[in-house]
Amino acid sequence: MLANRQLWKNAIYGIALVTYICSFLFFGLAVAAVRQGSDVGTAVIDMLVALYFLIQVVFLFILSTVVERRRQSLPITFANRRK
């Protein structure tokens, strides 16, 4: 089960989707804080958290491409030196 690459890839995509949704949530919280005129510090922290989640999504997609790569077993060919 742990060697199933497709299972790992689907798990990574699921985590990336949840992380992407969280980034929109924190972006919305930051916009709402600015609109209400409340503390700017909370809006900045919400924006930083949203950016962190977006960067995490990028790294998760990079991880999914690494998981997808398969080891290629190419035959070794030697030059014919008898000629």
How many domain modules?
Answer: 1
User: Major sheet: size, sense and barrel closure?
Assistant: none
- Summed over residues and divided by their number, the pLDDT gives a mean of 84
User: What fraction of residues sit in β-strands?
Assistant: under 5%
Number of helical regions: 2
Structural class: mainly alpha
- Portion in helices: over 70%
User: What coarse outline follows from CA principal-axis ratios?
Assistant: elongated
The sequence of SSEs as H and E is HH
Radius of gyration: 23 Å
Low-confidence stretches: none
> Would you report the number of β strands?
0
First-to-last CA distance = 50 Å
Give a quick summary of the entry.
73% of the residues lie in helices and 0% in strands.
Describe the overall structure.
73% of the residues lie in helices and 0% in strands. It has 83 residues and is mainly α. It has one domain (5-68). The longest helix has 32 residues, at 5-36. 5% of the residues are buried.
Keywords:
single chain, 83 residues, mainly alpha, 2 helices, 73% helix
Secondary-structure blueprint of this entry?
Layout: H1 5-36, H2 40-68
Helix pairs in contact: 1-2
